[in-house]
Write a structure and sequence with these properties.
The chain has a domain at about 30-100: Carboxypeptidase-like, regulatory domain (Immunoglobulin-like), CATH 2.60.40.1120. It contains one helix and eight strands. It has one helix at about 1-20; strands at about 25-35, 45, 55, 60-65, 70-75, 85-90, 95, 95-100. Strands 1, 4, 7 and 8 form a four-stranded mixed β-sheet that branches. The chain has a four-stranded antiparallel β-sheet with strand order 3-2-5-6, with no helix packed on it. The N and C termini lie far apart (about 130 Å).
Length: about 130
């Protein structure tokens, strides 16, 4: 009888763990450069509703486990335009993105002047006459 109860409870726990895991679905994909097609490493990929996020690996690959429902994927990296995509999460989804680089002109003109002070100055020294 005890063996039967242990087996029964183990089966129930196993069933609920599979049921809980079945509610999560994955969104995967690759992030590449729009012009060159090369993988972009260390790109921030996150879902704005839940706040769950990750970064891409050296191949530009990412994977998130999310619950079903309406979601919004945000992808951003310095030097690239941010990407935002609202979507409905029903099953495992693949979203690959080509990021456009920002055309940032970083022209700055720095001018300065240096003023050299003359540390020698005329000193008026008064000499007292001894009487």
């Amino acid at each position: 009888m005890k063996t039967f109860l242990k087996l029964f409870y183990s089966t129930i726990v196993l069933f609920f763990s599979f049921a809980a895991q079945a509610q999560l679905v994955s969104v995967t994909g690759y992030v590449r450069d729009f012009v060159s097609g090369k993988a972009v490493e260390s790109v921030a990929v996150y879902e704005s509703v839940s706040g769950i996020g990750t970064i891409t690996n050296s191949d530009g690959y990412y994977k998130l486990l999310l619950s079903k429902g309406n979601r919004e994927l945000k992808i951003s990296s310095p030097g690239y335009e941010s990407f935002k995509l609202p979507f409905k999460m029903n099953a495992d989804t693949v979203i690959s993105v080509n990021l456009k680089s920002m055309n940032v002109v970083n022209n700055r003109i720095v001018s300065g002047s240096r003023l050299k002070k003359d540390t020698t100055s005329n000193r008026n020294e008064a000499k007292l006459k001894e009487e």
